[in-house]
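Researcher: I'm preparing a figure for a lab meeting and need a structural model of a single chain. I don't have an experimental structure, so a prediction will have to do for now. The sequence is pasted below. Please return the structure as tokens so I can convert it later.
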Amino acid sequence: MVGVPHPDFGEVGVAVVIARPGSQVNPEQLIASLKAQLAHFKIPKRCFVVDELPRNTMGKVQKNLLRERYKALFVD
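Model: Understood. Here is the structure written out token by token.
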């Protein structure tokens, strides 16, 4: 999950996930299953399936790069 700018809410969550080898992830189904388990405000507005996450030399996910990549989603 990363926060990206939103014109109405200020910032919203976007999920970026990696599918396990041999399986497929449908972003709409993932969000629907989360709606049954989480409060409405915790549900990501969008979900993206990627092959890999950007990581630094220590192996940590570089969330700043993900925010940059998806920040233009909700711009008018």
